[in-house]
## 1
Amino acid sequence: RMNSFFRENILIYNLKYAILIQNCGKHRIIRRNAMSVCYDKLWKILIDRKMNRTDLKEMAGISFNVLAKMGKGETVSLESLRKICIVLDCNIGDIIEFINETGK
């Protein structure tokens, strides 16, 4: 027996796609839009706080590879984003945004 959470429409965001799934006995994809990730908000926060990427790496305990991926606009783990948010005392929406690549 499914709980009420799964009976409703569910909007799932991962770092690559926004997927709207509706449960009608079986899950089915209703809409799939290509999304890209943008870290411009994070870079602005670092500038405003007079921090550089190395400072962030050391304070948050993230690897250089994570910063390199972010610099290229690639996806990183939620755990890395959580560590950054803790260090900067902010929410995930303050450092990351999703851009719709389809232009719709």
## 2
Amino acid sequence: MKRSILLLSAIAAMTIANAQTFTAGKFNYKVVDTENKYVEITSGDDYDGATSADFVAEVTNEGQTYKVVGVGASAFEWVEFGGDVALPEGFQYIGKLAFNNACGGKFTVPASLTNFVTNAFIQNQFQKFEVSGDNPNFATVSTTQEGCEYVFLTDKTKKRVLVAPGVVYKDASEENYVETVVIPESITEIGACAFNGNPTVTQVTFHNGITYYGDNAFENTWLTSANIPNGNAYFGIALFQGSPDLETVTLGAGIKELTRTMFNQCNSLESITLPEGITKLGKQSLCKTALTSIDLPSTCELIDSSALQWITDLKSIDLKNVKRINAQAMGNMTFL
């Protein structure tokens, strides 16, 4: 009897779950609020070629009309859109990894959008961002990079970059694209994941007025060097993690520590300038780099767990001022 009740409960749960998802037009939808009849777009197998026309504010299923209020997690991962993407008014949010690796023309944010997860656009290949002028939360900053218009998606103050475009072509052939970006003086903060996975930019020029670098801001990029003049800025974790072409790094005076996984798995990193004042190398901060020598400042007192692990080419490092070395901080080094 107990087994029968459990089986019936499972069947009922499956029926309810199935009733909460449906397909209308090009996309799949999931009910997220039964009382208000709200749905979000979910992932699907045949989204390539979609355009703005496929995004609608309302959908109907079995005689019931629903309002589309968001884009769910991973909904458009790896999708190659057939042109521009303009979300209709009524869309309120964009979920995690929603447009990860998505490729398209211009992306337009509606006035109704209130938030998106910071990793919603990592590795995106959109060419431009646009925001409805009535949106109270987001804006854009238009710059000129290598003679081309280059538009950042920003917060409303236009001081924090939220997303950089993945690819900006120099001409109609779509064979040449902008590779060098100069952060404008008006921008003072680089938000979390802002350039994460950017497939085209190889050089970014930072100015001294930048005071904030968010988590994962340049993770998995193709930058070849990084010169950060203002060491007094806030530095998030995994800032340049997994950037395979990063070779040289210069950090300005004022920085107190290398944050966790800051340069982890930057396999080509051969040179880093660490200024006086640094007191700590955070966990995995230089793990799996190509450094052959490290000139620690006299102020460095702590090397945290795995900070220098798997630096197999390291030949010299002066530890005389270091007071504490945590577990596996320097594990798997051939010279030890």
## 3
Amino acid sequence: MSLNIELLESSFLQIKAQETEFMAHFYKTLFADYPEVKPLFANTHMGKQAKQLFKSLVLVVENLRNPDVLSNVLKGLKPPKFVKEVSLEKIANPLPVPILFESRRKKIQRFLSLPILNIQKIWFPLIKNWLTQNFPENQRIYLVIDRTKWQRKNLMMISLGTSRE
């Protein structure tokens, strides 16, 4: 299926003249059809967000005939930094148990310290189950498991490689 550039350009010209209305309709429809994404915009200035999205659309449509321009812009983008941290406090805070916060935190700490919650009894069976469901028995696969401590964070990484044969 080829891209009908003329149709995209001509239809976007009609939208371009009504930027504010178009973006308001876009976000209204987005939040109505996918209410689960609305919290992602909780701390966002929606006017600025809409302007940035529209500027991106203008850039794409105006350069449909110049893919090198789009390629260079995309190469220049830096991925956002997402830092996900889990602490006992973050887990204990919303826990719906009618006890004091410190007691909830200690309860979680004791639970996570149970001997049964170890890599051999929890993670290895999960990995084995996933592998048997997704790969034929005679296919050679390479599973690399690494655990390290970086700064004050424990990291576990699992990589899977297969032969190109």
